[in-house]
């Protein structure tokens, strides 16, 4: 069976638009300058200067919510760099996009408008699509002319890995030839208030999207695209009690490595979700019990803040960025072609899992360029 590879990626992050600012920021290991915001949080890690009409143009963006604008921009950046030939057969290109609840700001604003207006139906109909969870995925496909399978996945902090797993199944079953997958999260005042009321107050909230181009190795070779990483597999599990979370993750990692005929010592790079508190301690327990403590660690959350539904997608992006980070900051974890990378996730609602990647030479060559 032909291996599935990541042959392209794009990032919109608190470091700016593009993979270069992101790779430099991850390499430096410093949190970007936070922006003062309204609401219970004093600041947030937002995409600097991101304005939807300025980035996408005024046409069709008047009523576009921020999450959709970020996703459309992220997909556009990827297609601009890697999309040669993709749009020739748009029906063969799919899109799987992870999200939390869609645009929380739009949902709450639209609901409030319907309750405070003279009539419940005195609302702006142009803003109703923003209240639907699959708005960002659908609009991204329409905007860029992608006509293959289109899906939205929501799974808390695990969303990015769940979206990647969904995308690999579509490819394996021949539903499309290439697929874009990733996750998006917006910052808004209402998202901040919900997070605050839920007790998540230890760090600023972040926003952004990470999108990956997935295809078979043969497809990448035909198109002249160089593989950046090979997706070897994923595994997920559910837990009901907090003390079950660590052993649950350990079982996922151990079982996946055994299925891939890999030893724990083969893992050279680990990107954990970095969740705070007891849940984070359980994640660290699961990692140490399954692969030990010898692998280099990428700590995305320390740098990017709480990315919520986009967390795992940014962990994947950090793995790609690490392949070729030499000289980009003292102590920055560095990956090498052939290294095995482990990405783990743990969500407070009871989902945990992992994905294993093998770094390829293409990622290093791209960063050097």
From TrEMBL:
Q: Name one Pfam family in it.
A: ketoacyl-synt
By its UniProt entry, which InterPro entries does this protein fall under? Beta-ketoacyl_synthase (IPR000794), Ketoacyl_synth_N (IPR014030), Thiolase-like (IPR016039)
Checking SUPFAM superfamilies in the record gives:
Thiolase-like (SSF53901)
For the Beta-ketoacyl synthase-like N-terminal domain, which residue ranges apply?
58-198
Query: Which Gene3D superfamilies has this protein been placed in?
Result: 3.40.47.10
Keyword Transferase: yes or no?
A: yes
Question: Does this UniProt record's set of keywords contain Nuclease?
Answer: no
Q: Which UniProt keywords apply?
A: Transferase
Q: Which GO terms describe its molecular function?
A: 3-oxoacyl-[acyl-carrier-protein] synthase activity
Entry's Gene Ontology BP terms = fatty acid biosynthetic process
Give the protein name, as stated in the record.
Beta-ketoacyl synthase-like N-terminal domain-containing protein
Source organism of this protein record: [Actinomadura] parvosata subsp. kistnae
């Amino acid at each position: 069976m032909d291996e599935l590879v990541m042959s392209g990626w794009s990032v919109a992050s608190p470091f700016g638009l593009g993979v270069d600012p992101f790779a430099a920021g991850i390499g430096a290991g410093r949190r970007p300058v936070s922006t003062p915001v309204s609401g219970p949080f004093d600041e947030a890690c937002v995409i600097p200067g991101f304005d939807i009409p300025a980035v996408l143009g005024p046409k069709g963006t008047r009523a576009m919510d921020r999450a959709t604008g970020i996703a459309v921009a992220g997909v556009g950046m990827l297609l601009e760099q890697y999309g040669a030939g993709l749009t020739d057969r748009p029906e063969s290109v799919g899109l799987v996009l992870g999200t939390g609840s869609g645009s929380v700001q739009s949902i709450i604003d639209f609901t409030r408008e319907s309750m405070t207006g003279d009539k419940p139906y005195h609302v702006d109909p142009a803003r109703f699509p923003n209240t639907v969870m699959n708005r960002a995925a659908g609009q991204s496909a329409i905007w860029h002319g992608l006509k293959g399978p289109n899906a939205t996945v929501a799974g808390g902090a695990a969303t990015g890995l769940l979206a990647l797993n969904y995308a690999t199944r579509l490819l394996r079953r021949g539903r499309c030839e290439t697929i874009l997958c990733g996750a998006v999260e917006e910052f808004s005042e209402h998202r901040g208030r919900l997070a605050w009321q839920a007790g998540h107050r230890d760090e600023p909230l972040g926003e952004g999207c990470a999108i990956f181009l997935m295809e078979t190795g043969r497809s990448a070779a035909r198109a002249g695209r160089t593989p950046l990483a090979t997706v070897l597999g994923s595994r997920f599990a559910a837990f009901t009690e907090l003390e079950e979370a660590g052993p649950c993750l350990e079982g996922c990692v151990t079982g996946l490595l055994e299925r891939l005929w890999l030893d724990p010592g083969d893992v050279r790079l680990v990107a954990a979700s970095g969740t705070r508190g007891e849940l984070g301690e359980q994640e660290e327990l699961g990692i140490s019990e399954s692969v030990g403590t010898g692998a280099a660690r990428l700590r995305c959350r320390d740098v990017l803040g709480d990315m919520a539904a986009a967390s795992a997608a940014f962990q994947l992006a950090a793995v790609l960025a690490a392949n070729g980070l030499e000289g980009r900051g003292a102590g920055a974890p560095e990956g090498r072609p052939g290294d095995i990378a482990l990405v783990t996730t743990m969500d407070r609602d009871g989902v945990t899992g992992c994905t294993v990647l093998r770094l390829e030479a293409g990622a290093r060559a791209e960063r050097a360029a």
